[in-house]
Amino acid sequence: MGKKKTQRDLGRRERQIMDAIFQLGEASVAQVRGRLPDPPSYSAVRTMIRHLESKGLLRHRSEGTKYVYRPTQSKESVSRSALRHLIKTFFDNSSADTVAAILDDSDGKLSEEDLDRIEQFIEEARKEGR
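Now predict its structure.
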């Protein structure tokens, strides 16, 4: 059985298509094409969407004469997978280094609400013994 495809296994244009569909929730080829920077032809987008469907990342339903596509995985599932990959690849699997980089890059733009939320996550992690 083949390895499960994830968004990190995709080319740039395929990621852009997936991003557009995640943003819209579900979309036709024309709607996706309207979200792409410097969009290729309608038939090229349709071909890429079919390819994503064959990889198991999208499924479709008929709506009149057109197909409407939606992701097979939730945005949360895909974002967690991408984050795990980012942490592993760029931060040597260190959550602390990842958080430090995010805080360092924020340039003081974190609101009190953001800081309270981060503090709450830290307290919960301590309680759970993570």
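DSSP finds six helices and two strands in the chain.
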